[in-house]
């Protein structure tokens, strides 16, 4: 395959300097991000058919490239750092990436505070705190925090610590807080306790045990028996945890040991954390896009992504195989650690055994995960099949959209949409609709406006940009484990929708309207706009409305407006009896109260209500805040905004002096504000 004509000039003019390149497809999506020492030569290599024999994935990638962008960097190290940031930002499907890569949780010790505490966070900041992680399992992080709190009691409240509070909270009574608020422990001793907690997380358990033993003996010698008992309990707790830590290496150097297992396209990486010769812990990470990739490429991609987020880089990282970019990665890790880092394949028997141990754990973890995935898939498919049968739906309800209206006496009206795919929340597709130009509490018209705006977005997407549901890449059933087969489609159940919809109608034809100047202009839309339109172009397999027959009738009318009534099944769920209303049937449907289908529709409806009411309360609070200021003579929108930007809240404005207020508003208005608030 020669370089395509539309790309030839781009490739020919690429610089021969280090940098990053981004491949886009016809939908303006980033499908691959890479780095190169020589951008022109590296990009040109993708169009060499000889390389596709050993890497069919590269051939598929090359045929999808519609556009190329590049970023020149001063060195290969800068390009590596940029590449990691771009992969995290765009998550291209041809790149190897951490599965479900949101932000992994960390333990955060707020060391910058006089009385530090321990939090769970998903974001590292340069705020003086100490971070430990990342962890792959959020439940394990909270369990670790609870264990640490029993071993090294720390405060867990937002009190301002003066040491003179009249009484402590209940956590002091149950020995989960050392009581700095009542002066039961002084600042220096409290921070020493938190330092021991940090040492424990860093694997310095022997030092902690020795320190606690010494303090216990000193307290006992000074007749401080209660304090000695506290040290004794801490010592026993530390020793109990340390007993479970295996001594796996004679070296005192901190090490991370990385290995992975693969099975039928799935890849699981295991990381062992060895500190001072002891196996302190381990984490596993599942990779996407690693099928057909070499062992070296899997390791190379994982090391960049994992240590790009890790709170600690050890001086030694053991790998099961040598990687091509070892030197540049070592320089990058040295930059992150602030000291030298050795990245190598072990030769000594002891270290080789550690890599084997990590590989065994990776294999066992992947086997367990696949069994769990299969079980979950079967369970979700069975639930969706049960719901399909109960509601006589023509297709498996893989994609469920639920809509709810939230308001207080007609104020701060919000329409909310939540999306569940395969019975799991797709939170990136949640949307809120601010209801406009409706006076008083009118749930019916609010629902009408919400649904009209939703399906207008669908129509705009399929008409202006050709993103119809016929596009397999946009269809949730295209890759759905529980999607209806061709046989199912050919023989749909005898339902209202099956009667109204031809069996062969598996795609939505966009309305035939002339292409406008506006739609032509949209061809140059940004990537974010294109992705947003692609999501709006997806139609639900089940439209679920929170409400009764009235709300259902509104939804039916809106679907008819957009000629979707034969395509999109719609039902409503009424709260009082949890009964489901369907079109053209007088009698409601009551799902069995212990059925998984009933739990699913409840969960979807409750999530829509939760999501909507949260936004409604936020808007209601803003309206209340604005109305208090707007009621003051001389304060308009501009002055209100300035006051809130300066003082942050009504309380801040109330506490400000007249002189401070006069800096933003006239003296007379400032005095009026003080008198009013």
What would your notes on this structure say?
A hairpin with an 8-residue loop joins strand 5 and strand 6 (118-121). This protein folds into 5 domains: 5-95, GIY-YIG endonuclease (3-Layer(aba) Sandwich), CATH 3.40.1440.10; 106-243, no CATH class; 255-368, 2-Layer Sandwich (Nucleotidyltransferase, domain 5); 392-507 and 534-619, UvrC, RNAse H endonuclease domain (Nucleotidyltransferase, domain 5, 2-Layer Sandwich); 631-676, 5' to 3' exonuclease, C-terminal subdomain (DNA polymerase, domain 1, Orthogonal Bundle). It has 24 helices and 19 strands. Helix 14 packs parallel to helix 19 (549-561). Residues 468-496 and 498-527 have low confidence and may be disordered. By secondary structure, the chain is of the alpha+beta class. Helix content is 46%, strand content 16%.
């Amino acid at each position: 395959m020669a370089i395509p004509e539309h790309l030839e000039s781009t490739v020919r003019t690429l610089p021969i300097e280090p940098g990053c390149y981004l491949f886009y497809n016809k939908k303006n999506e980033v499908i691959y991000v890479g780095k190169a020492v020589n951008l022109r030569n590296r990009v040109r290599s993708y169009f060499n058919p000889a390389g596709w024999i050993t890497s069919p994935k590269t051939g598929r990638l090359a045929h999808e490239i519609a556009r190329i962008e590049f970023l020149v960097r001063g060195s290969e190290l800068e390009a590596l750092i940029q590449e990691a940031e771009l992969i995290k930002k765009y998550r291209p499907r041809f790149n190897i990436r951490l599965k479900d890569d949101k932000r992994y949780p960390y333990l955060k010790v707020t060391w910058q505070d006089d009385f530090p505490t321990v939090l769970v966070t998903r974001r590292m900041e340069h705020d003086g705190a100490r971070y430990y992680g990342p962890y792959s399992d959020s439940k394990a992080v909270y369990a670790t925090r609870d264990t640490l709190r029993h071993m090294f009691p720390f405060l867990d409240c937002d009190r301002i610590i003066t040491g003179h509070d009249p009484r402590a909270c209940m956590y002091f009574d149950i020995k989960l807080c050392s009581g700095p608020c009542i002066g039961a422990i002084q600042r220096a001793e409290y921070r020493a306790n938190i330092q021991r907690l940090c040492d424990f997380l860093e694997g310095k358990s022997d030092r902690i045990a020795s320190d606690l033993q010494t303090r216990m003996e000193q307290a006992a010698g000074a007749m401080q028996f209660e304090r000695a008992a506290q040290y004794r309990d801490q010592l026993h707790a530390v020793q109990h945890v340390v007993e479970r830590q295996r001594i796996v290496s004679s070296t005192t150097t901190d090490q991370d040991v990385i290995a992975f297992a693969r099975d039928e396209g799935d890849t699981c990486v295991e990381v062992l954390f060895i500190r001072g010769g002891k196996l302190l812990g381990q984490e596993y990470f599942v990779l996407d896009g690693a099928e057909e990739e070499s062992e070296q490429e899997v390791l190379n991609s994982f090391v960049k992504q994992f240590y790009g987020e890790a709170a600690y880089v050890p001086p030694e990282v053991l790998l099961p195989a040598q990687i091509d970019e070892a030197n540049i990665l070592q320089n990058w890790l040295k930059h992150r650690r602030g000291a030298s880092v050795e990245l190598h394949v072990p030769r000594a028997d002891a270290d080789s055994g550690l890599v084997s141990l990590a590989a065994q754990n990776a294999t066992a973890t992947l086997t367990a995960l696949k069994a769990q995935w299969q079980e979950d898939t079967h369970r979700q498919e069975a639930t969706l099949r049960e719901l399909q049968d109960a509601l006589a739906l023509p297709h498996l309800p893989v994609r469920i959209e639920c809509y709810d209206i939230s308001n207080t006496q007609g104020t701060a009206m919000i329409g909310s949409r939540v999306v569940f795919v395969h019975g799991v929340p797709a939170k990136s597709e949640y949307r809120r609709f601010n209801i406009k130009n409706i006076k008083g509490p009118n749930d019916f018209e609010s629902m009408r406006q919400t649904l009209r705006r939703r399906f207008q977005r669908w129509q705009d997407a399929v008409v202006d940009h050709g993103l119809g549901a016929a596009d397999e890449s946009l269809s949730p059933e295209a890759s759905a484990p529980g999607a209806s087969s061709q046989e199912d489609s050919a023989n749909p159940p005898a339902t209202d929708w099956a009667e109204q919809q031809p069996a062969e109608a598996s795609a939505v034809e966009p309305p035939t309207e002339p292409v406008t100047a506006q739609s032509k202009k949209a061809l140059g839309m940004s990537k974010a706009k294109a992705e947003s339109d692609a999501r709006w172009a997806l139609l639900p397999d089940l439209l679920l409305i929170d409400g009764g027959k009235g709300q259902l009738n509104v939804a039916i009318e809106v679907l008819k407006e957009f000629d979707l009534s034969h395509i999109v099944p719609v039902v409503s769920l009424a709260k009082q009896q949890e009964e489901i209303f369907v079109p053209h049937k007088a009698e409601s449907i009551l799902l069995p109260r212990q059925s998984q289908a009933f739990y699913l529709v409840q969960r979807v409806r409750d999530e829509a209500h939760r999501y909507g009411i949260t936004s409604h309360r936020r808007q209601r609070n803003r309206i209340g805040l604005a109305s208090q200021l707007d009621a003051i003579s001389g304060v308009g929108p501009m002055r209100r905004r300035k006051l809130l930007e300066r003082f942050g809240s009504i309380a801040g404005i109330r506490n400000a002096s007249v002189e401070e207020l006069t800096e933003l508003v006239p003296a007379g208005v400032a005095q009026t504000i003080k008198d009013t608030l």
